């Protein structure tokens, strides 16, 4: 049932691509990775991502949804859903104010869900052409997480004011290859938990709008719930369609 839910979520995410094709101001990316192994080991690994960007003269809006499901020997070993959105108000060619919201449901993280809202200042300090850029941002916000299991004192939630620091680099190696590096840290100001995420990727165009993408993602939680790992890593090879 969980596998069917993951597949349904990925199929529904195709809808924005149809909208993008009818809206020249909207850029969309659809990413899909599937691995099925049978024989000595039965394993199904499905991952997907939909990313949307809309640029205006003064505004930049982005949204992203990702899903991942791994099943081995009829047992689910990984299940994760993430959604995030950000709006930027560009008050000159480089500087902007941002408002960002994020939600995550990772079945094996020790959390029922994780959410955060942040706002602050950003600067696209370097930009070449339509693809290559380096952007940095910093801001303050609020984090609310619900635990899978209550703490010994009965508490089943974490909430704190946070400071967020982030950077993103996109570099066009050639007209067929693109390197991306994203790094973000959210520091709890009222409790000691710090969450750091990094994503490194390289994509190469195969034909037309189709590309192959290799990515490596790391998430580190300084003070995770009991029985949860501090560091979670994902390496993925997927097909990427852009419009």
Automatic annotation (TrEMBL):
InterPro entries referenced in this protein's UniProt entry, alphabetically: DUF481
Keywords associated with the record: Signal
Pfam family membership, one: DUF481
UniProt superkingdom: Bacteria
Endpoints of the signal sequence: 1-20
Protein name stated in the entry: DUF481 domain-containing protein
């Amino acid at each position: 049932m969980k596998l069917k839910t993951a597949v349904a979520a990925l199929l529904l995410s195709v809808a924005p691509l149809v909208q993008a094709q009818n809206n020249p101001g909207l850029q969309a990316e659809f990413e899909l990775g599937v691995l099925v192994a049978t024989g000595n080991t039965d394993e199904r690994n499905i991952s997907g991502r939909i990313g949307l960007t809309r640029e205006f003269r003064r505004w930049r809006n982005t949204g992203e949804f990702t899903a991942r499901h791994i099943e081995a020997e009829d047992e689910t070993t990984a299940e994760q859903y993430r959604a995030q959105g950000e709006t930027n108000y560009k008050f000159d060619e480089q500087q902007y104010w941002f408002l960002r919201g994020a939600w995550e449901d990772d079945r094996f993280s020790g959390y029922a869900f994780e959410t955060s809202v942040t706002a602050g200042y950003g600067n696209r300090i370097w930009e070449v052409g339509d693809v290559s850029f380096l952007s940095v941002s910093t801001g303050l916000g609020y984090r609310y997480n619900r635990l899978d299991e209550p703490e010994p004192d009965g508490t089943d939630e974490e909430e704190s004011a946070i400071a967020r620091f982030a950077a993103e680099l996109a570099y066009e190696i050639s007209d067929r290859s693109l390197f991306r590096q994203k790094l973000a840290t959210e520091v709890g100001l009222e409790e000691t938990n710090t969450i750091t995420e990094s994503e490194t990727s390289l994509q190469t165009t195969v034909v037309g709008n189709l590309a192959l993408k290799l990515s490596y993602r790391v998430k580190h939680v300084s003070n995770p719930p009991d029985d949860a790992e501090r560091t979670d890593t994902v390496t993925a090879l997927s097909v990427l369609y852009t419009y």
